[in-house]
Amino acid sequence: MTQDELKQAVAKAAFAYIEPRLEKDTVLGIGTGSTANLFIDCLAPVSGRISATVASSESSADRLRSHGIPVYDLNTVDQVDFYIDGADESNHALQLIKGGGAALTREKIVTAVAGEFICIADESKLVHTLGDFPLPVEVIPMARSHVARELVKLGGSPVYREGVVTDNGNVILDVFNFPIPQPLATEAAINGITGVVTNGLFALKPADVLLLGTADGVKTLFAQ
Ligand code: 5RP
To answer: What is the mean pLDDT of residues 65-92?
Structure first.
């Protein structure tokens, strides 16, 4: 199966996972990226049963609205029951690297509110140690050089993602050559640098379940 077919399979599996639990007042949190887009498209045929969503990016919000699915500001809902989103990497504790699509801050905010975070990914994303994928860090523009110097002190090689401005008006540094054997400590250390909005490690609040697309079918993984 191709990577796209695996992504399609996990999008369908995520829909099957939440569909029996959809209530009238369920609020769905919707992530960002190609896998999340496929999940959004799975919602289209049942759009009338989706009373509320919150989205982690303007692009996902636009896609939801294009299917006639209502999108709300996070501040106007009382709860987010499920958050469904992809990842750039996951380890076996379901700690993630996210932010390849530059939506990491809003993704982390919706994750913080969500009752259950369902991560959907193809098997290429599952790794032993996080860090082959360069770690995205969202930074206030005037702090870019300062934050880059601090990231070098932590052992990484930050690269400015040229031409990208986040939905929050900030910039992204991608940290290369940065294996992350202790994600909890690294997430906290980077977030402690002045000028960092947040970083793409989801370790303090990892996924609750990972639906992983493999050649043998979709596997349901819980944190080990
Ligand atoms: C966007 C993200 C995405 O979830 C991540 O980049 C995975 O994307 P895709 O589903 O396209 O492989 O974190 O900021």
So the answer is: 98
Decide: pTM greater than 0.90: yes
Q: Is 69 in the pocket of ligand 1 (CB under 6 A)?
A: no
What residue owns the CA closest to ligand 1's atom 10?
Answer: 35
Residue 42, pLDDT > 90, answer: yes
Catalytic site includes residue 5: no
Nearest CA residue ID for atom 1, ligand 1? 101
Q: What pLDDT does residue 223 have?
A: 87
Residue with tokens 């540094």: 173
Residue 99 Cβ < 6 Å to ligand 1: yes
- Residue among 3, 32, 167 to mutate when testing ligand 1 (max atoms within 8 A of CB): 32
Q: For 121-133, write each residue's pLDDT tens digit.
A: 999 999 999 999 9
Catalytic residue from among 107, 138, 150, 187:
107
